[in-house]
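Subject: Sanity check before I submit

Could someone independently write out the structure tokens for this chain? I want to compare against mine line by line before I put it in a report. The sequence has 268 residues.
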Amino acid sequence: MTQPAPITGRTRVMFIMGDPIGHVVGTAVLNAAWDAAGRDLVTVPLHVLSADLPYMLDMLRKAPNVAGTGITIPHKINALRLVEHLTEAARLTGAVNFIRRNADGTLTGHNVDGAGFLAGLAAHGVDPKGRHVLLAGAGGVARAIAFALAGAGVASMTIRNRDAAKGAALAADIRASGLTTAPVGTTAGPAPELLINGTALGMKADDPLPFTPEEIPPGAVVAEVVMTPAETPLLAAAKARGCTVVPGRAMMDPQAALVARFLDGDPA
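---
Independent answer below. Compare away.
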């Protein structure tokens, strides 16, 4: 078995910041990619409370051997206003899931959740183009997925969120973006062909399902963003109805290559 490269004083460091942090599997995905590419870089999880996020990001500015950080729940939207620069993907989606420390100590926020999600669908043989979509959630990851789907040519998108105003705001932002002329709203649309859980529901054993089993049409595609557990109750319910399922891990695996490009300055 190949041993990972040793961590030395020359090794660059990257974090994943979130609260909670115990569910995170992205560190393993990224570290495996860095080892395979011969990058002297290590990624470690960091438990950061919302009130402490500004101070932790300021720490990145003061540490030249830090490459940046991943950003996970609940910080993706708040991080947007805490960095000096934003890529077009972050600006469009209104959320950040990776931050790069630049040579001058400034921070650039980026978002690869949407691109990662589409790549994960493709890896499972799913093309969202022309499909009617039902999306649960309007937070950071859901926003990125919603904009990516709009750009991918879905036939319609219904956004369901516990905070109805937040869901309506996301739908309005997508309509205003010019990415699609397809119907995007919060009222029930055509029978969904692609259902996506863009929330944290499923991380805890007693969480309710984001969609009831009766709302899942047999033969539909059901996709998750929750990575732990690997098979959430939603995916189990979808399998029982003969659906194609796409686990949360599917959107993480393609992100390593996208993050590597970002750390190297693309996009600037």
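---
OP: Matches mine. For the report I'm noting this point. The CA atoms of residues 33 and 256 lie 6 Å apart.
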